[in-house]
Amino acid sequence: MAKELIRLRDCTMVFDDDVVLNKINLSIKDNEFLTLLGPSGCGKTTTLRIIGGFVKPTSGDVFFNGVRINDVPPHKRTVNTVFQKYALFPHLDVYENIAFGLRINRHEGRRLSKDEIHSRVMEMLEIVSLKGFEHRDVTSLSGGQQQRVAIARALVNRPKVLLLDEPLGALDLRLRKDMQIELKRIQEATGITFVYVTHDQEEALSMSDTVVVMDGGVIQQIGTPEDIYNEPVNAFVADFIGESNIVDGIMIEDGVVEIFGKKFACLDAGFAPNEPVDVVIRPEDVDIVDIKDGMLTGTVTNVTFKGVHYDVIVDFKGFKWLIQTTDYCPVNSRIGIKIDPDGIHVMHKSQYSGMFGDYSSYSAEYEEISDAELGPEETVSEDKLYEA
User: Fold this and answer.
1) Per-residue b/e over 235-255, b at no fewer than 16 CB within 10 Å?
2) Residue 192: closest CA among 92, 289, 81, 276
3) Are 251 and 346 in contact (CB under 8 A)?
4) Counting Cβ atoms within 10 Å, is residue 125 exposed (0-12), middle (13-18) or buried (19+)?
5) What are the two backbone dihedrals, phi and then psi, of residue 230, each rounded to the nearest 5 degrees?
6) What does DSSP say about strands 385-386 and 262-265: parallel, antiparallel, or unpaired?
7) Residue 357 region, left (φ>0) first, then alpha (ψ -120 to 50), else beta?
8) How far apart are CA 377 and CA 295, in angstroms?
9) How would DSSP label each residue in 178-189?
10) Is 117 strand, coil or helix?
11) Which of 147, 168, 212, 157 is nearest to 190 (CA)?
12) Residue 108 banded pLDDT, cuts 50, 70, 90
């Protein structure tokens, strides 16, 4: 098991009476790719700046290898940072940009020789796939190549930790996807701990060993990408990570949840009998079937072709769900749906309950979706338990 490298204990940050971080606790392991994920203003960049020493927490402690470092300035921490703006030196070529830190800093109490500097720079060029670019003018490079130079410059000093504050934000979509793969490869090749800040869920899921979801200066959930996606702890995490249909339910007993007055088999347990809960159902976990075979029936209100699938908005008793399917369903058609037990995830009620999950105002892609006229529900006994 990897050892703990960094620990934040009860860290609070207050700016002008505004609590930006509220007693967060976080452990970061050696050789880990950890991502701080959340919307703007959630506190993720402040957390990064506390680790880097750019700001000191109002209260709480920061430990590095078990040693408290609250008062250690940034230049004395074995930490480097890559920002969204790469801040490369335009008058220096690629080689000299990377070598700059080696020339001005002492390493283990001594200046590096010319040969040592050359060896390290060429090693970094190899790692970031820029071998042969050493004499290029940095202003002639693409955005992705400039980013790799910035990463090489940060890594050449061999820090214990590399902090990355939304470094892909300035790149186009295709290049961002390519660089996600590159960043993970570089992290694995160097064995350096990466702490990455983003609001992009795809970046977090594709690169990270650990994802830390934040909102309102509070850590909402910490886990692997798979855990965060499949087992969100509340409606905020379920909505922020991927698309979700989040509906009110009642946990009748272990393995049985009631939605829209009908009982469904699920895999969740440990709730109080008849406890009100939030139920999250991912769009890809819903199967469209004939009305006669449906657990629920609804009316299609919108269909959007997305290439590999259709995004289908379906009205169930006034609540609109998103379903992702390869089957085309015309607008105004009546459909049935089936959900397997492992496609239903039950969560405790929280401050976020009722805020997410209804696609009636999904304006980003669907503009306004008018209410569907409710058709008669299929005759199903309220006491029937649906099982896969």
Assistant:
1) bbbbbbbbbbbbbbbbbbeeb
2) 81
3) yes
4) buried
5) -85, -25
6) parallel
7) left
8) 10
9) HHHHHHHHHHHH
10) helix
11) 157
12) low
Query: pLDDT for 284-314, tens place per residue?
Result: 999 999 999 999 999 999 999 999 999 999 9
CA dihedral 358, 359, 363, 367 (to 10 degrees): -140
Per DSSP bridges, beta strands 18-29 and 4-15 are: antiparallel
What are the start-end ranges of the E strands in 30-72? 33-37, 59-64, 67-68
Please state, in angstroms and rounded to a whole number, the distance separating the CA atoms of residues 346 and 383: 20
- Report the pLDDT value the prediction gives residue 361, as an integer from 0 to 100: 54
The sheet that has 4-15: what strands, in order across it?
18-29, 4-15, 59-64, 67-68
Tokens found for residue 91: 């008058």
| 187-226 pLDDT, tens digit each | 998 999 999 999 999 899 999 999 999 999 999 999 999 9
The model's confidence at residue 107, banded by pLDDT at 50, 70 and 90, is low
User: What SS3 state is found at 317?
Assistant: coil
Q: Average pLDDT of 270-280?
A: 97
Radius of gyration of the chain (CA): 25
For residue 258 the two structure tokens come to 């009631």
Taking CA atoms, 7 is separated from 24, 61, 69, 302, in Å, by 10, 8, 10, 48
- The residues with which 28 forms a beta bridge, in sequence order, are 6
90: phi then psi, degrees, rounded to nearest 5: -65, -20
CA 42 to chain CA centroid, Å, is 13
Please state the rounded mean pLDDT for residues 96-116.
82
- Let me know: does 235 contact 358? Beta carbons within 8 Å: no
Sorted by where each starts, the structural domains of the chain and their CATH numbers stand as 4-229 (3.40.50.300), 245-386 (2.40.50.140)
Banded model confidence at residue 109, pLDDT cuts 50, 70, 90: low
244 is written with which tokens? 């979700």
